[in-house]
């Protein structure tokens, strides 16, 4: 049985956060979703879905920070002009989907994300952020700022190049500095409106760490400890988001199925078959309902993730095919 870590609370808060989150940081970086993202291996639709989840996270964090902008432990690092990411995420999503920015929430990818509800990992994350914003002491929001903003600043330029290459965003416009589709990874300089270089991003990180240390000086040891522990929780919540990312293999069956449906539809149009009687015997309808219910049960219980999930998907496809074939035969 492992014991809780012991912290030297006399140290600056930035140091405590760095030392106290090493393991959680490593776990998050080595998760499967992070590896796919950093490797530029996500299908474009899945990457957009990931950005949509991040938008919800940043929108909730930033509304909480705006609400408590003058709180003693949050004021030293409050700078939405420099740090806010929700607006850039929204712009990137709209660009990648090729829709006006005020319309991306009506896109099928977003509708699928929120129907019937947001992914559980995202809901858990947002609920935690909202609870902190509603608490008498919102200081732990600083931990979420630390995890998200310093992470973006540390790897922003590298990830930007990976994403631009993966999704064909290396256009002449982007080379000129417009950063279409990758503005989430771009920060402005600390004291100007120019895009920050790697050196300038280091200055922003130093400024942020100094602000955290000031915040640490303004709170009791118990509050400092709460912030450090919340930072580890923030990493775990982010891992939950990474774990909702679907691998290319997991998205292939659905793509294959759609293409086969399209092919069958095209073939039926080409052959110009005469229309058939659309009536179905009651027993046939019952068989179809049973097939759908079985497929739904398997999806709810275990999902179609991983190798085992793919095998379940093949089983359901085969079972449904056989059922529909029998149903069609009975109908004729």
The biggest beta sheet is recorded as: none
Strand content: under 5%
Determine the N-to-C terminus distance: 66 Å
**Average pLDDT taken over every residue:** 79
Structural class: mainly alpha
Structure description:
The chain crosses the membrane at residues 280-304. Residues 247-276 have a biased composition (Basic and acidic residues). It comes from Candolleomyces eurysporus. This is Heme oxygenase. With 332 residues, the chain is mostly helical. It is 69% helix and 0% strand. It has helices at residues 13-20, 22-29, 32-38, 44-67, 80-83, 86-97, 108-114, 120-134, 141-166, 172-175, 198-217, 221-243, 248-271, 282-301, 306-331. It starts with 12 loop residues before the first helix and ends with a helix. The model is unreliable at 254-332 (pLDDT under 50).
Write the layout of secondary structure elements.
Elements: H1 13-20, H2 22-29, H3 32-38, H4 44-67, H5 80-83, H6 86-97, H7 108-114, H8 120-134, H9 141-166, H10 172-175, H11 198-217, H12 221-243, H13 248-271, H14 282-301, H15 306-331
Short description:
Pfam families: Heme_oxygenase (PF01126). The chain is an all-alpha fold.
Features:
332 residues, mainly alpha, single chain
